[in-house]
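Thread: Newbie trying to understand structure tokens

Hi all, I'm a second-year student working on a class project, and my supervisor (Dr. K.) asked me to get a predicted structure for one chain before our next meeting. I've only ever worked with sequences, so writing a 3D structure as a token string is new to me. If someone could post the tokens and maybe explain what I'm looking at, I'd be very grateful. Here's the chain:
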Amino acid sequence: MARESIQALSALSRAAEVTSANLANVDTPGYRARRVHLEDGEGGEGVRVAPITLDSRPAADRPDHLEPAGGDPAASSVARPRSGVDVGREVVDLIRTQNAFAANAAQIRAWDQVTGLVVNLKA
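---
Reply by user tm_fold:
Sure, no problem. This is what the structure looks like when written as tokens:
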């Protein structure tokens, strides 16, 4: 039980790192967002990070890839980020990761409390 939660914390930490890197590169020309996919751990227990992939959607299909009116950046208040990072998606991913991390941390705390009670009863 605790082992699986610890594996999850490790995988979720990696997911948060990748999301942070995506957000840090939002203005980097040519940068393509990385995607973390989680998969079952060894023997179907726990969780681990599958190989990290690049966002496969073409830039024109990404909601953050907007062309200014007339091709002149000054002609419109709609800015066109220079990367393939969808800030909205990254924020949602970060919130999802944060909630999953908090749930697994709570499970580890509960396991620790139960283990402490058992040790105290045997002493």
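A couple of things are worth pointing out once you decode it. The chain has a mean pLDDT of 82. The beta strands are 34-35, 38-40, 47-49, 53-54. Feel free to ask follow-ups in this thread.
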